């Protein structure tokens, strides 16, 4: 038996990779599992994007290796998107690097900038991949708490008082997953100023800015951010293209070039048809996002009914594809409770512990299911609760 590399000893298989296999095992024709766990949009991309892919794929000349930096048409579409949505001007030639989904960018950025033993600031709660990648490159993890009493904001004063001399990179993610928290310009400016003072790279992972968010914002719109910041973005959530693996990183030329050094040794460029489709998708106007957010708004109301019947509490204002909620006080073990619901109703809800210690008392519901499916989940959970209450009364009487 060949021993695996030491670098993966502290990294576990991604939670959803394991758990969704278990969830699928419960599925049956008689009672289908309702998966309220993962944020994978269930709607189709825009027709113009699909048509662009088909037309490009039919061209025999379009199936060869492509430029590592992506085609100018795709990069220009990204630049136009940033100008229209965030009022940020990106250099089409030097300030944008297309990625096969922004998740790969997390790894590429860490490999490009973080040396073994250097510190990486990780949000708690936050996307688990930030921690996993930091472990893989031999960094020292420095979790920073997002506090409920600060409406899940960053405790910037606490960071200012801490020793940041060994920090090389800070991950931020606004609108935040899983809490749905958005950041103000003032908060982002304070974070940028902190990064400039202590000379570390700050990276905003920004895939949710167009979902149930009235004020989409890029960290690159903040004064001074270009000196110390990169931004990841993607079409996965905003354009219903999660499985297409289309994203990008934007920022200063020197930082983009460093990421390119890693990326160019990891893949051989993105299929041309996908780039043509992405360029078309990024042309979608306000009506696309209005319709998308109307749908998610309706689903959010249905999700809140589930949380109400579970006895959870939650903030009314949350952006992104999820609703984040606190479990009732009487629930001793949230993970166990979620499994009881799963096996008793075949409804899967994400337990918050996977996002860090600060999420241990919380759960997350995805809005990537129809209102009808969310309503069916509500009915199953309501029946489950009623049956548990009846069983408990019977046990008490018999005792």
Automatic annotation (TrEMBL):
It holds the Pfam family Aminotran_1_2. Its cofactor is pyridoxal 5'-phosphate. The keyword Transferase applies. Its EC number is 2.6.1.-. The keyword Transcription does not apply. Gene3D superfamilies: Aspartate Aminotransferase, domain 1, Type I PLP-dependent aspartate aminotransferase-like (Major domain). It comes from the Bacteria. GO terms for molecular function: pyridoxal phosphate binding; transaminase activity. SUPFAM superfamilies: PLP-dependent transferases (SSF53383). Residues 33-381 form the Aminotransferase class I/classII large domain. Belongs to the class-I pyridoxal-phosphate-dependent aminotransferase family. This is Aminotransferase. It comes from Chryseosolibacter histidini. The lineage of its organism: Bacteria, Pseudomonadati, Bacteroidota, Cytophagia, Cytophagales.
């Amino acid at each position: 038996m060949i021993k695996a590399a030491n670098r993966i000893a502290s990294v576990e298989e991604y939670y959803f990779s394991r758990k969704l296999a278990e969830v699928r095992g419960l599925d049956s024709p008689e009672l289908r599992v309702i998966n309220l766990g993962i944020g994978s949009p269930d709607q189709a991309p825009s027709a113009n994007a699909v048509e662009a892919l088909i037309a490009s794929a039919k061209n025999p000349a379009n199936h060869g290796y492509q430029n590592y930096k992506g085609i100018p048409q795709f990069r220009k579409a990204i630049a136009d998107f940033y100008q229209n949505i965030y009022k940020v001007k990106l250099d089409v030639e030097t300030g944008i690097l297309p990625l096969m989904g922004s998740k790969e960018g997390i790894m590429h950025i860490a490999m490009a900038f973080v040396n073994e033993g250097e510190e990486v600031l990780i949000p708690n709660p936050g996307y688990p991949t930030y921690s996993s990648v930091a472990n893989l490159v031999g960094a020292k993890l420095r979790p920073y708490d997002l506090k409920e009493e600060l409406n899940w904001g960053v405790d910037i004063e606490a960071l200012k008082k801490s020793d940041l001399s060994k920090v090389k990179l800070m991950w931020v993610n606004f609108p935040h997953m899983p809490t749905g928290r958005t950041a103000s310009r003032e908060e982002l400016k304070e974070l940028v100023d902190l990064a400039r003072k202590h000379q570390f790279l700050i990276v905003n992972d920004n895939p949710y800015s167009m979902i149930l968010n009235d004020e989409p914002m890029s960290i690159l719109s903040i004064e001074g951010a270009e000196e110390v910041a990169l931004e990841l973005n993607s079409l996965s959530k905003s354009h219903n293209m999660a499985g297409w693996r289309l994203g990008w990183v934007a920022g200063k030329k020197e930082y983009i070039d460093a990421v390119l050094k890693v990326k160019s040794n990891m893949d051989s460029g993105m299929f041309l048809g996908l780039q043509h489709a992405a360029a078309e998708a990024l042309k979608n106007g306000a009506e696309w996002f209005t319709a998308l957010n109307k749908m998610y708004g309706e689903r959010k109301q249905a999700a809140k009914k589930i949380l109400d019947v579970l006895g959870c509490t939650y903030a009314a204002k949350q952006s992104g594809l999820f609703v984040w909620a606190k479990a009732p006080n009487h629930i001793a073990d949230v993970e166990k409770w979620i499994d009881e619901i799963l096996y008793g109703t075949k409804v899967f809800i994400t337990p918050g512990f996977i996002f860090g210690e600060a999420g241990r008392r919380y759960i997350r519901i995805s809005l990537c299911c129809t209102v009808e499916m969310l309503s069916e989940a509500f009915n199953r959970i309501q029946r489950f609760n009623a049956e548990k209450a009846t069983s408990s009364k019977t046990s008490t009487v018999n005792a």
